[in-house]
Structure formats: C-alpha cells, structure tokens
Design brief:
- InterPro entries: Methyltransf_16, SAM-dependent_MTases_sf.
- The chain starts with a strand and ends with a strand.
- The N terminus is likely disordered.
- The strands form three sheets. It has a seven-stranded mixed sheet, with helices on both faces. A two-stranded antiparallel sheet has the order 1-2. A two-stranded antiparallel ribbon has the order 3-4.
- With 274 residues, the protein is of the alpha/beta class.
- The chain contains seven helices and eleven strands.
- Helix 2 packs parallel to helix 3.
C-alpha cells in the first residue's frame, strides 16, 4: 500500500511529494481503480471510482487553469483529490456512527463537505446514513476540474428513495465569487449549513487561510464542524497553522481515538470538532 509522502526537505518548500510505501496496511488503497467501504448500520456499501494514474499533475499542464485553492506546493504538482485518503475514511465512518446513534445533532439542517475530491466519500456516507426527515440534504464541493468525476461517483452510489438529497457543486476556497456561486444552489442547500465536513484538505500552510475563510462563509453561529487530517503525512506546519486559527475562532474539541469507528480508526488521524 502507498500513501502521499515527501523526500526529506523543508516542509513547505519541497514539491517532490509522491506515493511511496509507508505503512503495511491502510484504511483505503490509493493505487486501486475502485474501492468499496462498508460502514455497517444496515447501509449498502459505497463503491467509489479512483484515478491513481492521474495523481501526478502533468508538467505539461503547467499552472494554466489552476485555481487559487490549488495554488499551493502540493496541488501544483499533484491531484490529491483523485484518490481516497485515510482521514476521509475515518471521518466517514465516524459521522455514520454518530448519525446511526442519533448523536450528530443535525436536527433537519443541511450539510456540506469541503474538498470532496473525486470520490466524495464523507458526504456520500453521511447522505446514505441519513433520511430526509433528518437532514435537508448534503452538498459535495470541490474545484471545478474535479466535479465530473465526483458526479460520476455520486450517480454510481445513487441514494435509496428514502435517502437524503445529495448534490455536487463547484466551490473554491477564498474565491471572491464564491458567495455568488452558493446563492445559485438549491434554496434548502445554501449556507449557513448545520454541519460542515472536511477531511484531508490541509497539506500546505498556504491553503489554511482560504480554507478557514471557506468555513466562515459556509457556517453560522449554530453550525457544527468536523475537520480531519492524517498527521502521518508530516505536514506539521499546516496542521499547527490550522490548530492556531481554529482556536482563535471556535471552541475546539479533539475527538478521542476510542470514539472513532472500531473498524475504521487510525491513531495518526486527528479529528477536530468545532
């Protein structure tokens, strides 16, 4: 199994991130064209298409078409959203468990996932775990270039007739036009959202401020936010920046390991509840 890592170098300056063996076992397989997750609770398994061959961004593409959200060292040379990462698996299993036990506290509100990637694992898992009586629905978001593949996975995992509504929409962190974009979403699925989800979104210090701006834009005073990342990837500068900025604006709770799903847990994955 393989995972995003880097050769020894200064964390924010090195652009040689690559897939290389780090663990004997991972929660997901980023080298497989298709991965399946069964989180239990009577839910049908989720089957997600991946594009491991597209992980390395072609140098021939250059910076053309790269959004501000992608304009950080990792995303200039990599498409991290093409595959599933471990923090997404942990967070997806956690929200399914909380939803099954009635501990998610959505109370009929809508949810949004930031940085859904091409797989949309966390948002799809939530939508499958909830019915329309529990939520107005879930919006899966990412940069425009990832939306076609995300839409394919959404259609591949079509919700049951009694499942929650789920849609995919482009949303770029820190974009001055993002407010206009959200105003065109279905009325029931516009900010402020009751629940915000984000996993494996924090790789570089440069993308933390726009990420935090996106959280502010999409949340309200009563919103609940879950942010998860895998500390095994070694992006300590970005993680510290997020931790500092989060504590300046929110009450922060770190979800303990024992509260994670017993089958889908990982000590290195930090789950923040804001």
């Amino acid at each position: 199994m393989e995972v995003l890592s880097r050769q020894p170098a200064a964390e924010e300056d090195e652009e040689c991130e690559d897939l290389r063996p780090l663990f004997e076992e991972r929660l997901g397989d980023p080298s497989a064209p298709c991965v399946t997750f069964d989180f239990g609770g009577g839910m049908a398994p989720l089957s997600l298409l991946q594009r491991p061959e597209a992980f390395r961004r072609s140098a021939a593409v250059g910076a053309e078409g790269v959004t501000q959200q992608q304009d950080c060292p990792t995303e200039r040379t990599r498409r991290t959203g093409c595959v599933v990462w471990d923090a997404s698996v942990v967070l997806a299993a956690l929200v399914v468990s909380l939803a099954s036990d009635g501990r998610l506290g959505l109370e009929g509100g809508a949810a949004v996932e930031l940085g859904s990637g091409e797989t949309g694992l966390v948002g799809l898992a939530l939508a499958r775990a909830l019915g329309p009586s529990q939520t107005k629905g879930c919006v899966l978001t990412d940069v425009p270039e990832l939306l076609p593949a995300l839409q394919r996975n959404l259609e591949r995992n079509a919700m049951a007739p009694n499942g929650a509504a789920v849609i995919a929409r482009p949303f770029v962190w820190g974009d001055a036009q993002s407010g206009l974009a959200t105003s065109q979403w279905p009325e029931a699925l516009r900010p402020p959202f009751a629940l915000l989800l984000a996993a494996d979104c924090i790789y570089d210090t440069e993308n933390v401020p726009p990420f935090m701006a996106a959280l502010r834009e999409l949340s309200g005073l009563e919103s609940q936010v879950f942010v998860a990342f895998d500390r095994a990837l070694g992006r300590s500068g970005a993680y510290a920046s997020f931790d500092r900025m989060a504590r300046e604006e929110w009450l922060v709770e770190l979800v303990p390991l024992e509260a994670q799903h017993p089958q889908f847990r990982k000590p290195d994955v930090a789950v923040y509840r804001l």
